[in-house]
Automatic annotation (TrEMBL):
Binds 4 Cu cations per monomer. GO terms for cellular component: apoplast. It catalyses: 4 hydroquinone + O2 = 4 benzosemiquinone + 2 H2O. It is an enzyme of class 1 (oxidoreductase). Keywords: Apoplast, Copper, Glycoprotein, Lignin degradation, Metal-binding, Oxidoreductase, Repeat, Secreted, Signal. It comes from Quillaja saponaria. It is found in: Secreted, Extracellular space, Apoplast. GO terms for molecular function: copper ion binding; hydroquinone:oxygen oxidoreductase activity. This is Laccase. Residues 38-151, 165-315, 420-553 form the Plastocyanin-like domain. Its EC number is 1.10.3.2. Its cofactor is Cu cation.
Length: 571
C-alpha cells in the first residue's frame, strides 16, 4: 500500500511491542516519551482575554517528532474541568484501537483529574500528520503537528529542505468553544461562526489588536523550506497561499505525492500537507494567507482572512503592507477541484502502490445534511423552524454510553447494533436540484458495519443535495485509503469504474467529497478493531455525519487486536 508499503513494519511493531513490554530497548525503532497536561490557560486574541483548553499551556500544542516506525508513549493528564481524549490523526494504530482516541468509539473519556497513557505505534506513516482532542469541541484549541521523518539513514524523496516549519491553520472564537455545540443544540440552528482564523495561533494583520503578534516566518533568499501544514480548522475548508511564491505540494496525510506546483492549495479540516517553499523572490515582506472555501448555498461562514508574514533576511525597502496572495473566491468549487484533481501517489521501488484490483466488498454511503421537525414541547429556531441533523446512509449517529470497542471486547450487550446499511436505504437522484421534503428527515442509530478481516473494500462516498450540497471532508480512522476516482453528480457503477486510477491513486486519510459529487476509495480491511468514519467539519460530525466500522480479527494471533491496557478509562 503506497507509502505504507511492506509487511516488515507490522512484524517490527509486534516484535517491538513485546520488547517494550519487557522493557528492553534495542535498535528496532526508538521509543519517545511525552507528557501532555491538558489544562485551562489564559490567552488574549482580538482585544479580549479568555480561558482555553491547552496542552502544556501551549496553543497550538507541542509538535511531536519521530522517525518512521517509532513508538510514542504519551501520558495525558487531564487537569481541566472537561472530559478529554486525544486522537493521533493519520496513525493507523495497527491492532491497537485502544489508543486511537475518539470518545465513546474506542475509549471512555479521560475524566477530570485522571490520566491515560496512549501508545502510538507508528508503522509506515511518513510526513506530516497531527494530533487533536476527540471529545466535544475541545479540538478547537487542543491540537498540534506530528512530524514523521523517514527511517534513520533514509532521505526524503525530494531535495532536502534547508529548514522546516509547522504551519497550523486554526479557528478562534471570542466565546468559549466548549460551549458551542451545547448552545447550538438548544436552538437547533448553526453553531456560532468563529471570529477569526489563525496561523500558528495568531489571527494576523487584518484583525483588530492582532498586528503586533502575527506569525512571522524568516527566510533567507535561495533557501528551501518545508511547510508542515495542518488544517486544525473546525468548520471550513480553506484556500491557502503565499504572495508571489509558488508552492510545491509533496505529501498529504502522511503519504508522499508526485510534486504539485501551485499558486494556492485547498485544505480541508483534518488534512495535512507537506509543502515546499523556495525563497526565490526579491527580498521583501509577503503575506501567507488563508480564507474559506465555502460552497454550501445559504450556509453562513466566517468570511475573514488570516495572514502570517514571510520576511526575507537582509536590508531592503519593503512596502508598508506586505504583498497579498491570490486566493480564489469563497464559492469557487472549480478552484478547489482544479487543485485536488492533481493528487497522485509518488510511486517508486521503495514506495509501490498496492491498490487492490479485485474488490470483494462493495459499499456505498450517502452523506447528507438533514432537518428535523420540532414540536411545541421542544421548539427550535433552525432553518424553517426546524433543527439540523446529518447522516451517513440516512442514519444519524447516536453516541452510546460505553464505547463501542469495550462493548465489543467485553461482549457488553445492548450498546450497538450490527446492521449499518451497506448501501443507501433509498435510491433517489442524490444530486437533484429538487428533492422531495420527505427525504430531509434521517433515522437515528448506534450501529456498526461489520467487515471481514482482510476484505478488499471499495467504498463510494456519495454527496447529496438533501437540504444543501457541500464539500465534506471524510476521515477514516485506522486506515489510509486509495482515492481511485471522483466526479460530480451521481456515481455511475457502470461507467465510472472504467475511469478509475489504479496506477498512482493518492493515498489519504481525509478526502474531500466534492459538492454534489462522489469519490471512490479502496482499502484492505487488515486492521482489526472499531474504526470511526466521519465528516471532519465539526458541526456536521456533531449533527451525526458519523459511522463506525467493526473489522473482525484475523485467523492468527498476529492479526487480532491487542489486549486492552490496564489503565483504560472507565465510563
Ligand atoms: C440536543 O437537544 C435535544 C433536545 O432538543 C436532546 O434530546 C439531545 O440530547 C441534545 N443533544 C446533546 C448532544 O446535547
Ligand atoms: C503594538 O506595538 C506598538 C509599537 O511597539 C505599540 O505602540 C502598541 O501599543 C502595540 N499594540 C498592542 C495592541 O499591543
Ligand atoms: C466577504 O467579505 C468581503 C470583504 O469584506 C465582502 O466583500 C463580501 O461580500 C463577503 N462575502 C460574503 C459572502 O459574506
Ligand atoms: C459566488 O458568489 C458570488 C457573489 O456572492 C455570486 O455572484 C456567484 O454566483 C457565486 N457563484 C457560485 C458558483 O455559486
Ligand atoms: C414535518 O413537518 C411537516 C409539516 O411542517 C410535515 O409535512 C412532515 O410530515 C413532518 N415530517 C415528519 C417526519 O414528521
Ligand atoms: C438528477 O438531477 C440532476 C440535477 O437536477 C439532473 O440534471 C439529472 O437529469 C437528474 N437525473 C435523473 C436520472 O433524473
Ligand atoms: C430516512 O429515514 C426516514 C425515517 O425512516 C425516512 O422518512 C426518510 O425518507 C429517509 N430518507 C432517505 C434519504 O432515505
Ligand atoms: C490478505 O489478502 C491478500 C490478497 O488476497 C493476501 O495476499 C494476504 O495473504 C491476505 N492476508 C492475510 C493475513 O490473510
Ligand atoms: C464525562 O464522561 C463520563 C464517563 O463517560 C460521563 O458520565 C460524563 O457525563 C461525561 N461528562 C460530560 C460533561 O460529558
Ligand atoms: Cu460535512
Amino acid at each position: 500500500m503506497g507509502c505504507r508499503s511492506g509487511s516488515a513494519p507490522m512484524v517490527k511493531v509486534l516484535v517491538f511491542f513485546v520488547l517494550y513490554v519487557s522493557l528492553i530497548h534495542i535498535a528496532v525503532g526508538k521509543v519517545h516519551h511525552h507528557k501532555f497536561v491538558v489544562e485551562s490557560s489564559s490567552y488574549t486574541r482580538l482585544c479580549s482575554t479568555k480561558n482555553i483548553l491547552t496542552v502544556n499551556g501551549e496553543f497550538p500544542g507541542p509538535t511531536l517528532k519521530a522517525n518512521r516506525g517509532d513508538k510514542i508513549i504519551v501520558k495525558v493528564y487531564n487537569k481541566a474541568s472537561y472530559n478529554i481524549t486525544i486522537h493521533w490523526h493519520g496513525v493507523r494504530q495497527l491492532r491497537n484501537p485502544w489508543s486511537d482516541g475518539p470518545e465513546y468509539i474506542t475509549q471512555c473519556p479521560i475524566q477530570p483529574g485522571k490520566m491515560y497513557k496512549y501508545r502510538v505505534h507508528l508503522t509506515t506513516e511518513e510526513g506530516t500528520i497531527w494530533w487533536h482532542a476527540h471529545s466535544g469541541w475541545a479540538r478547537a484549541t487542543v491540537h498540534g503537528a506530528f512530524i514523521i521523518y523517514p527511517n534513520r539513514g533514509s532521505s526524503y524523496p525530494f531535495h532536502e529542505p534547508d529548514a522546516e516549519i509547522p504551519i497550523i491553520l486554526g479557528e478562534w472564537w471570542k466565546k468559549d468553544a466548549m460551549e458551542i455545540p451545547g448552545n447550538a443544540n438548544k436552538t437547533g440552528g448553526e453553531p456560532i461562526l468563529s471570529d477569526a482564523y489563525t496561523i500558528n495561533g495568531q489571527p494576523g494583520y487584518l484583525y483588530p489588536c492582532s498586528k503586533n503578534d502575527t506569525f512571522k516566518m524568516k527566510v533567507d533568499y535561495g533557501k528551501r523550506y518545508l511547510l508542515r501544514t495542518v488544517s486544525a480548522i473546525m468548520d471550513e475548508e480553506m484556500f491557502f497561499g503565499i504572495a508571489k511564491h509558488k508552492l510545491t505540494v509533496v505529501g498529504k496525510d502522511g503519504c508522499y505525492l508526485k510534486p504539485i506546483k501551485t499558486d494556492y492549495v485547498m485544505i480541508t479540516p483534518g488534512q495535512s500537507m507537506d509543502i515546499l517553499l523556495e525563497a526565490n523572490q526579491p527580498p521583501s515582506h509577503y503575506f501567507m494567507a488563508a480564507r474559506s472555501y465555502s460552497s454550501a448555498v445559504g450556509a453562513g461562514f466566517d468570511n475573514t482572512t488570516t495572514t502570517g508574514t514571510v520576511i526575507y533576511s537582509g536590508s531592503y525597502h519593503h512596502p508598508p503592507q506586505p504583498f497579498a496572495p491570490y486566493l480564489p473566491p469563497y464559492n469557487r468549487t472549480e478552484a478547489s477541484t482544479d487543485f485536488t484533481k492533481k493528487f497522485r501517489s509518488l510511486v517508486s521501488k521503495h514506495l509501490p502502490v498496492r491498490v487492490a484490483t479485485e474488490v470483494d466488498t462493495h459499499l456505498m454511503f450517502t452523506i447528507s445534511v438533514n432537518l428535523l421537525n420540532c414540536s411545541a414541547d421542544k421548539p427550535c429556531t433552525g432553518p424553517f423552524g426546524k433543527r439540523f441533523a446529518a447522516s451517513v446512509n440516512n442514519i444519524s449517529y447516536v453516541q452510546p454510553t460505553i464505547d463501542f470497542l469495550q462493548a465489543y471486547y467485553y461482549k457488553i450487550p445492548g450498546i450497538y447494533e450490527m446492521d449499518f446499511p451497506r448501501n443507501p436505504p433509498n435510491k433517489f437522484n442524490y444530486t437533484s436540484e429538487n428533492l422531495p421534503e420527505y427525504l430531509l428527515t434521517p433515522s437515528f442509530g448506534t450501529k456498526v458495519l461489520v467487515l471481514e478481516y482482510n476484505a478488499s473494500v471499495e467504498l463510494i462516498l456519495q454527496g447529496t443535495n438533501v437540504l444543501a450540497s457541500d464539500n465534506h471532508p471524510i476521515h477514516l480512522h485506522g486506515y489510509s485509503f486509495y482515492v481511485v476516482g471522483w466526479g460530480f453528480g451521481n456515481f455511475n457503477p457502470k461507467k465510472d469504474p472504467l475511469k478509475y486510477n489504479l496506477i498512482d491513486p493518492p493515498e489519504e486519510t481525509t478526502v474531500g467529497v466534492p459538492k454534489n459529487g462522489w469519490v471512490a476509495v479502496r482499502f484492505r480491511a487488515d486492521n482489526p478493531g472499531m474504526w470511526l468514519l466521519h465528516c471532519h467539519i465539526e458541526r456536521h460530525q456533531t449533527w451525526g455525519m458519523t459511522m463506525v466500522f467493526l473489522v473482525k480479527d484475523g485467523p492468527s494471533p498476529e492479526n487480532r487486536i491487542f489486549q486492552p491496557p490496564h489503565d483504560l478509562p472507565k465510563c
